[in-house]
């Protein structure tokens, strides 16, 4: 590894660090209860919630298990379960 | 055709800065830097200089404004003295680490307490560890030329460090000398627009100012030192290039003045060099084998060039206007460190002269030479650096 | 999964940063950049935000970003703005996003200088009321009677005796075009205010209340809840000020007593039971009530 000039670093490189390893609990989305309001995507400090083909999902590579998505979900569609290591 | 004018030293610097077309200038007033930044402000106000002039609320901010401007890809300039330079210390270390190539003038002035507005080198010497390149000039013409070279040196892709041109307050900044000023077209040819390697760019977003763990920090710091060492060669090349263009040659990293066959070589930097040269001439005319090494580039420390000039001499008398309390003068220490263990190295003696503006005249130099020669005869180095001109009768017990 | 549907495709503040889980500041920054778009240069002073986004080699910033020192983010920003002007890069705007330590305290002088000069910088303070990066030491933004590590509650002290410095008022006194307060609990409102601020030129200031689960002492999933309580109690008034006049306020739908807010956080746990500390709690309630009256909440 060579050092960069002045310690300047390319942006977006944090994606190489998988903060998902930090979790104690993981959110599980129950689509049956989901009304697609998008609040979960909105409130995640780690941008770890997404929607694909109308299905909401968690990017477990980065999710730290803070539980904000679960707490803020208006229909209680997200459940925090203990992380199996 | 070069234009010769009688200029106040500060004005000469302002003309040099103007010729280099900085995008951003920022400064906080402090004697004796004020005339430089006032002259530049007037140039901007009259539309003669197209720079963004940012009037800040402290020197910390002045150095920070030009750091931000430099990171954003603009050529930038500031100036300060004494307390203001100390206040900039943190910024200068950071910007050297960030490899920002701005230029600044360090107008030399003593440091409080007691407060003094007179000249010595304690202020800029205090910044010698920071990674900022330092030049010391003898005259207003040299100040002009060195500022112009400074931008090119700072921006050299192999260097990329802040450059500080140190010039004595009042003696140079507020006196009038004949100065040749470059034509703008000449200056533009010598110094093309700044082309940064990295800059804050929305099309290629990068992050500046990371924190480094123990596995990389040493390498980053070493890179600064390596850039300075590389700079020694490049600085000489750029000075030569400018000398060729202007017809004025102030020398390389040092100027060796009448050192051939010298037994005692004095070493000094700043405007005092003028006085030392006159003393050397007078002593030479009396048959004494005396010479002078003028330090032009202090950081990086040009010990190879110094060695080439001094190795035949018996004694080197370093004359400096700064002191590291509890130890010695900085230039003396730098030289002794490099000569330590070298075979047949001359005896190095450290003389402290001119603190707080105390007069250094031919008599002072003669006394210094006398003491140096005595020390050499006895074969004993002066234990303590000799504070030339100090009045010990003023001191109370224990100082 | 197609790249454009990956969560990080459109984000300017991507995953992998090292903020604590549930960090209010990280969430706020994500939304600030949604509102500004990519044509911004961001300056951050030393602090949590700087540390968790810049371990060497791992940056979540998809906009150009610079951290220089602790006390000079405003002046670095002024320098960047001056450079952009000189380079005629008109479409690029300058932001500072920094914590309360670097804004209320050590950067205060530089901030005032930037405001006084009228530099074209949007200064966003992500305020968690202490020096959280270093474990939660007291700052000028720490609320009254909060415990911090350098102003702890002890047998002869109830925590910080001084009020939170009213920085929005101080900023407004400089005569700047736009000042606002916001909360990470109200993200749409936050984005709207950032968008509004971007319409102006000159110095603008937004102070965002960003609760810190780690040091305030509440579960990581309650960041927005605690933020809402701060607003609903009146302790965190949300308003906009344009050219010195209050133009919008967020009225409190259902006022809650400050007690509820205090009970939710360990940093106020020394004030429990509130009956024992009713004088101190009343002083906090007075602050809230004064805000409600002053801003018409």
Structural account:
The complex is a heterotrimer of chains A (85), B (399) and C (297). Chain A contains 2 helices and 5 strands. Chain A has 85 residues and is an alpha+beta fold. Chain A has a two-stranded antiparallel sheet. In chain A, β3 and β4 form a beta hairpin. The longest helix of chain A has 5 residues. Chain A is elongated and about 50 Å long. Chain B has 399 residues and is an alpha/beta fold. Chain B folds into 2 domains: 244 residues, Rossmann fold (3-Layer(aba) Sandwich); 141 residues, Rossmann fold (3-Layer(aba) Sandwich), CATH 3.40.50. In chain B, β11, α10 and β12 form a beta-alpha-beta unit. Chain B is globular. By secondary structure, chain C is of the alpha/beta class. In chain C, α2 links the parallel β1 and β2. In chain C, α1 packs across α7 and α3 packs parallel to α5. The relative contact order of chain C is 0.12. Chains B and C meet through β3, α3, α5 and β9 of B and β1, α2, β2, α3 and α5 of C. β9 of chain B pairs parallel with β2 of chain C, so a sheet runs across the interface.
Quick rundown:
The complex is a heterotrimer of chains A (85), B (399) and C (297). Chain A has 85 residues and is α+β, with helices and mostly antiparallel strands.
Secondary-structure-based class of chain B equals: alpha/beta
State the name of the first-level CATH class of chain C. Alpha Beta
Give the largest chain-chain interface (CB within 8 Å).
Answer: B-C, 45 and 45 residues
Strand arrangement across the biggest beta sheet of chain B: 3-2-4-5-7-6-13
Arithmetic mean pLDDT of chain B: 96
Rg over CA atoms of chain C: 19 Å
Going by CATH, the homologous superfamily of chain C would be Thiamin diphosphate (ThDP)-binding fold, Pyr/PP domains
CATH superfamily of the largest domain in chain B: Thiamin diphosphate (ThDP)-binding fold, Pyr/PP domains
- Outline of chain B: globular
